[in-house]
Amino acid sequence: MGGGTEAHGGLAGARGALKDRRMAITCVLFDFSGTLFRVEPADRWLGSVLDAAGARYPARTVTGWVRALEESGGQPGGAPPRRLPAHLAGAWELRDLDPERHRWAYTGLAREVELPDPAWYEALYERHMRPEAWAPYPDAVEVLTGLRERGVAVGVVSNIGWDPRPVFAAHGLGALVDAYALSYEHRVRKPDARLFRVALEALGGVDPGEALMVGDDRDADGGAARLGCAVRFVDHLPGAERPAGLRPVLDLVG
């Protein structure tokens, strides 16, 4: 990891580290998927497409498709591919820089699983962008509201190939985010420090030493440390298994 504040393995115990910096935190940057929001389970993802198509199959068959789709990595926000097909390597590498590459990469991975109707692959991709396919972590609203009450600016910095703003709006978080720095809009992705700088500039030119980046990917989100931001990590877990993973952020800026 580059220069700047050391990225610790969790939020706990970070208060002292931030105090040692002798600078108040005036903004917090968050990752999207796995940090503020969690994508729906793969069985519900596929089930919603089957229901919309009026398709009925034996439970054992559907379970097999779900397992194969999980292994393929075809659900954005879900598990990464266990094996990346050679013909998709280029699109996968650049998926977060362009919406078409993003679609091509993920529908291509899903197509590695043989499903009865070819139209389902596009339907699955479309489904993952719908607000109902995402749920905020249980403490997300509490933490973002608390930051707003403390006068701390909030930015979202995400490697993504589509616009998540409607997801935030539909779940009541849109008014709690001040700026977005999305990889596909700026053609640069984390851990490149330029994307974090875009967010800080959008928030009024915040000094990196006054910023905290919160994410679940130690490589991608850890890039903020190269600018001098504090970096803290949360675990990418289902919401029920991480009911209060974001809450320590309020202690860090309190």
Tell me the name of the CATH homologous superfamily of the largest domain. HAD superfamily/HAD-like
Q: Output the structural class.
A: alpha/beta
Overall strand count = 7
Strand arrangement, largest sheet? 5-4-1-6-7
Shape: globular
Strand content: 5-15%
Poorly predicted residue ranges: 1-9, 12-22
The biggest sheet amounts to: 5 strands, parallel
Just give the CATH class of the largest domain.
Alpha Beta
Output mean pLDDT.
92
| Helix run count | 11
Query: The CATH topology of the largest domain, please?
Result: Rossmann fold
How does this model look, in words?
Strand 4, helix 8 and strand 5 form a beta-alpha-beta unit. The chain has 254 residues and is an alpha/beta fold. The protein folds into two domains: 14-36 and 137-253, Rossmann fold, CATH 3.40.50.1000; 40-133, no CATH class. The chain has helices at 14-20, 42-53, 59-72, 89-93, 99-110, 119-128, 140-149, 165-170, 183-186, 193-202, 248-253, and strands at residues 27-30, 37-39, 134-136, 153-158, 179-182, 211-215, 230-233. Helix content is 38%, strand content 11%. The longest helix is centred in the N-terminal third of the chain and has 14 residues, at 59-72. Strands 5-4-1-6-7 form a five-stranded parallel beta sheet, sandwiched between helices. It has a two-stranded antiparallel sheet with strand order 2-3. The chain has eleven helices and seven strands. The chain is globular, with a radius of gyration of 19 Å.
Defining key terms:
single chain, 254 residues, alpha/beta, Rossmann fold, 2 domains, five-stranded parallel β-sheet, 11% strand, globular, hydrolase activity, HAD-like_sf, HAD_sf
